[in-house]
Structure prediction request, 493 residues.
Amino acid sequence: MYLAIRRNYINATIISFNKLHTFSVKYNSSLKEEPKNYDQIKNISLTPKQKQLIDSMIRIDQAGEIGANYIYKGQMAILGNDKKVGPIIQEMWEQEKYHLKTFDEIIPRYRARPSFLRPIWEAAGFILGVGTAMMGKEAAMACTEAVETVIGEHYNDQLRELLHIENNDISELKKIIKQFRDDELHHLDTAVDFDAKKAPLHGPLTAIIHNGCKAAIWITRRI
Amino acid sequence: MFKQKTACIHQGNVIQPIIWRNVLNKQQNTRKFTSAAEDLKSENSVNEQTHTPPPTPPNPPNPIPAEILRASLPFVNQYGWTIDTLAQGAKTLGYPYISHGLFPRGGAELIDYFLEDCRIKMTNEIFDKMDGLKVHQKIRFACITRLNLTKPYIKKWSEALAIMAQPNNIPMPIEHLAKLVDDMWYLAGDKSADMNWYSKRAILATIYTSTELYMTQDTSPDYIGTFQFLDRRLQDSATFGRLIGEINTFADFAVKSTFGILSSKGIGRF
Prediction:
């Protein structure tokens, strides 16, 4: 008898931590006699708030990788033949492709919602890539520098937030974000090595791209 | 001792509990100064009360709203999605008739509970029976399971649809529909992470709602007509999806060949 009550109590507490059961939280009651739900069986034991946080995180990361992919695609369309920076951009692009593939796999696994504005990020990234590449190699590298600064910083912020959540379900996500942050910062170093600072109007250009990326993050967090 | 019971009065949007014991204690206080002996007795009893730990109440102090909602569902076919149903549900649990004041939105809250409950029941019922099915079979299975849960209340479902269509209630059914469709695709093993994520959910939402609407008017035995309707809609969406895929391939081909012609003329490098 005691055990049965105890089990009911534990079930109730676990259920109330589930996204599927925001309802029970809303009504301040335990839905006893309810069978286990799917999330519980899958051992995803995050609070609704944490789930929301991770949902928006993954959405932003994926959108960022889409943007980065299309920036490199645009740059390659113009600078693909260049013997000096062509292979470097290609190499960075390959890494971004891998990042995007990883986030495409993570989205269904964590049941995150992809960004609704994906076509806009694709178009904006491509235009940015083509535009900066047309301004010259240095401007293209300055663009990479600005974008990777924002993305690297943002990954760092996310990692800081994730470290507060102690849960085995997201240990994999932490590892991935850590690795990707290092990759992005490596791209930043590469861009600076290839004369990013010598670009025409380096200051205003990077400032515009910087703030544009931040605005995109702000929008993607919501949509 | 007095049995601790509470009732609720609904004033505007604020629900104020009345604790009967306090009311009765007040009555006792007015009677207190009748004689010295009674006075002493009551003092003793007060002392006893303060020294003994408060006993745990036999019943939960507040009526649990979810329990009332669950108990109300069997009355839906008789009274509709109304306050009366909620009152009947409260009555079966031994709570006063006016407990329906806990639900300021009335029937809409009962529908809210019903939709959430059905979705959870559906996921629990189907998640371990999906092995070896194809995606469209999984979706069909999920839809049928969910429709079967609405079946007992289908006579009153058009009434529920009318309540859900009221302007202040509109966000509630949309949220439930989004969650339901998301669960269905998740259980079907959908792995899309681009715009397909949205289009798949939108298409399934339209299919599900239209089938449910058909079901309210269905007179065929055992709702065969509804399930045939569902099959036809699913087939339509499959052909629609294939058409979109073909258009995409064609557009891709056209763009690539255009750039190919341009580059052969020596314009740009793509």
User: Anything to note?
Assistant: The domain at 52-222 of chain A is CATH 1.20.1260 (Ferritin). Chain A has a mean pLDDT of 77. Residues 48-79 of chain A form the longest helix (32 residues).
